Amino acid sequence: MHDKHLCTAFxxxxxxxxxxxxxxxxxxxxxxxxxxxxxxxANPEQAGEVLAMxxxxxxxxxxxxxxxxxxxVRWQPAASDLRFLLAVSKVTSNLERVGDQAVRIARTVLRxxxxxxxxRADGPLVxxxxxxxxTLHLLRGALDAFDRRNAVQALAAIALDDGIEAEFDGLLRxxxxxxxxxxxxxACSLDLVVVAKAIESIADHARNIAEEVVYLVRGVxxxxxxxxxxxxxxxxxx
Length: 238
Prior knowledge:
By secondary structure, the protein is mostly helical. The chain is built from 7 helices and no strands.
């Protein structure tokens, strides 16, 4: 009976940690969405909201780290439970970095002169918006996969990252061309390069989360797979 109570208490503690990771993921995702809305609508108030949310993300990481340390010492978990706790540590680290990149976008918004590009519907902001939309889809897919411990969903998220890299390369070429055509656009084009690079970095962190899910569920390390196809092949052989 005593062992049963201990098992139930440990499971409850794991569930609490998982819930806090979900909350942190939702907050990081909200930061990215708000930062992009601030950029697209030239809204400094929304950019300020992102800067304020950074403290919440950082506090969440500290809280979860404390919970992990406590759980490791108290329960000394083995096998799959230990793997889950280690995965949580890596996921929260990546989420904190997602928040950092959202802050980077927000700070760029505060100095960005969108008038140099005219109507956003005809400028590179449309391409950046598409890159961000795909990246948010990747991040949401990775977080859902972690919450459900679903390797198939994680692999689907990883596949999105290959396309984001291609989008970033095309966007970068367009911005370079814009600077060459009109030197007056150099400053704002460089700001958009910063934003595009931040979005690409967010996608990389989201992919890292998805890769952690594959390892958590199947015990296969796909971090060094050259593309999504190779990652799927490695995971499928487990």
